[in-house]
Amino acid sequence: MPMILEVWPSETFFEKGTLRDLICKAKPKTAFLKKYCSPKSVISLPCQLIKVLARQILDIVKYLHDKHVPYGHLHSCNIIVTADNKVKLLDIENSLLGLPSFYRPFIVEFKKINTLELVDVYCFGHVLFEMTFGRPLRTPTCDNFPPQCPAEIRSVLESILTSEACKNGLPNIGDLLLHPLFSDVVLPAAQQKPTIKIPSKLKEAIKTAKDQIENRLQEEQKEVHQIRRRSKAAAHHSSEEEKKKRRKSKKKSVAEDELNDNQPKSCESPKPEKKTTISEAVTSELSVTTSAIPPALPPESK
After folding, report:
1. 110 in Cβ contact with 221 (< 8 Å)
2. pLDDT at 302
3. pLDDT tier at 3, thresholds 50, 70, 90
4. Where are the alpha helices (DSSP H) in the chain?
5. In sequence order, what DSSP letters do the residues of 233-273 get, joined into one string?
6. What is the DSSP letter of 199?
7. d(CA 124, CA 240)
8. d(CA 130, CA 154)
9. pLDDT tens for residues 161-183?
């Protein structure tokens, strides 16, 4: 089965437009806001066409990662579909230029999406959703897909876009290519075998850039996670239930203080007077009398 792997510079103009233009039935030269924000009509692509396009997208992205070329900018406006249903990807240089992914605001919420390959897998899920339902997914995850979704496509979407999948980990590109959704896909014949020649010095620079991109992504995910924990704690502390608990605890403390203030203070009972016996009185009197007698004078010396 031949594979079609084509990557084009973003400066090239394609008269048919992008995958997003195809879904929105828009002309490429129409203003962005007019054709995408309020399209007159949108279409869901046929299931077989979705399979063919999705398989080609995965093949291209896998080829790039096998060559250690980071992408991370997969979305419907970066995908060209030719008249004979061949797929081309745009903006391959964006990651190397330091530009963030289109879905980065969503990606930083999930610590398990921490490599550029998994970033592309997550973005592929959004592209597959848009091809299937004719509209982009505006939320980071989706746990309830429309009932008209074919079972095979639903299975792939659930493995990528559900809350559980994003929390516990996504499949890699190789796993997706083995999914039954693509088992009967027949790709158009490729005109020529793609090649990417990268000098050895540039390979090292690309690897360094890839590592830096992934490290920065992981740092941002940690920061977002910490912010969310603090926000959750603050929301819990200011919730009505917690306020009621604090008011109840305060009232209980005040009531206990008032109860302690109203109780009579304990006074020390006076010590009982010690009764003196007759013998003790006589002894005391003799002691006083004896102390009053002056001492005897010493005898006069002759």
Report:
1. yes
2. 42
3. very low
4. 19-24, 32, 47-66, 104-107, 116-133, 151-161, 163-168, 173-177, 200-237, 240-262, 278-292
5. HHHHHTSHHHHHHHHHHHHHHHHHHHHHHHSPPP-PPPPPP
6. -
7. 41
8. 13
9. 999 999 999 999 999 999 999 98
How far apart (Å, rounded) are the C-alpha atoms in residues 186 and 169?
A: 30
Residue 239 has pLDDT above 80, yes or no: yes
Q: What is the pLDDT of residue 219?
A: 94
Buried b (16+ CB within 10 A) or exposed e, 29-45: eeeeeebbeebeeeebb
Long-range contacts of 194-199 (CB under 8 A, 24+ apart): 194/5, 194/6, 194/7, 194/63, 196/67, 196/69, 198/67, 198/69
Q: Give me the amino acid identity at 111.
A: K
pLDDT > 70: what percent of the chain?
80
Average pLDDT over residues 61-82: 92
Identity of the amino acid at 161: L
